[in-house]
Automatic annotation (TrEMBL):
Pfam families: HpcH_HpaI. One of its GO terms (molecular function) is aldehyde-lyase activity. Keywords: Lyase, Metal-binding. This is 2,4-dihydroxyhept-2-ene-1,7-dioic acid aldolase. It comes from Lichenibacterium minor. Belongs to the HpcH/HpaI aldolase family. InterPro entries: Aldolase/citrate-lyase_domain, HpcH-HpaI_aldolase, Pyrv/PenolPyrv_kinase-like_dom, Pyrv_kinase-like_dom_sf. Residues 20-235 form the HpcH/HpaI aldolase/citrate lyase domain. GO terms for cellular component: cytoplasm.
Length: 262
């Protein structure tokens, strides 16, 4: 069975850079995945991605050498198992709020007797080898997203869930959950109470021997998070990259045209 690139990096004490795909297109996925990320996540929760596009996107990511991950739409057995059967090397599950929900998530990811995952790795067995069934439980990664006030209050107990590999912080929803509309929405929190919250989740993960991941809105914040001790940081998604690049070209061109007129 082929090794999981993320597990190899972490075994060597190295952080991972994660890309994020919200546009349901295999060519766009191929472009992003070939830029040097260690992992790339296909977003089935908020991304404009259906099952057919997701499969092609996972194929494109795998061809790049990056670890293919999937953020599933919600905590339910079918989307978790389907993502893994399509060849994802790990799942990120949103809105996990309690230890019992974290245990459910683990059960969907692991085969019996550890969990309840149904056996049928249609694509995974092809691309990861005939021994997939024997090695899957130690191969695939299981991340619970911590992004609500309820989850934050119980984060240490969630982190203690057997079989969980990591905690993934969704800072936009976490800020809404902890502070309501007091602050702007989005990533890269600078408010002291939110920085403290991020550090508490990081400490909970490390205290339980788990990996900690943070969704970031900029390379600068991602680098800062690695300095704090995060094992994986997610860089801006394909939508933001496209919008930022297009805007930069338009602004640069208009500036040159205005200078020419003056």
């Amino acid at each position: 069975m082929l090794p999981n690139r993320l597990r190899m990096l972490w075994a060597d004490g190295k952080p991972a850079l994660n890309g994020w795909l919200s546009i349901g297109d295999a060519f766009a996925a191929e472009i992003v995945a070939n830029q040097g990320y260690d992992a790339v996540t296909v977003d089935l929760q908020h991304g404009m991605v259906d099952d057919g596009a997701a499969l092609a996107m996972l194929q494109a990511v795998r061809a790049s050498g990056a670890s293919p991950l999937v953020r599933v739409p919600w905590l339910a057995p079918a989307p978790v198992m389907r993502a893994l059967d399509m060849g994802a090397h790990g799942v990120i599950c949103p809105m996990v709020e309690t230890p019992s929900q974290a245990a459910e998530l683990v059960s969907f990811v692991r085969y019996p007797p550890t969990g309840t995952r149904s056996f049928g790795p249609t694509r995974a067995a092809v691309v990861d080898g005939a021994a997939y069934g024997e090695g899957a439980d130690t191969h695939v990664l299981c991340f619970a997203m911590i992004e609500t006030a309820r989850a934050f209050a119980d984060v240490e107990a969630i982190a203690a869930t057997p079989g969980l590999d990591g905690l993934y912080i969704g800072p936009a929803d976490l800020t809404l959950g902890l502070t309501g509309r007091r602050y702007r929405t989005g990533f890269d929190r600078e408010e002291p109470e939110m920085v403290d919250a991020v550090h508490r989740i990081l400490a909970a993960a490390k205290g339980a021997g788990l990996r900690a991941a943070l969704h970031c809105g900029s390379p600068a914040y991602a680098a800062k998070a690695v300095g704090w001790g995060f094992h994986m940081v997610t860089l801006p998604n394909d939508v933001r990259i496209l919008a930022r690049g297009a805007m930069a070209d338009v602004v640069e061109t208009r500036t040159m045209l205005d200078n020419r007129r003056s």
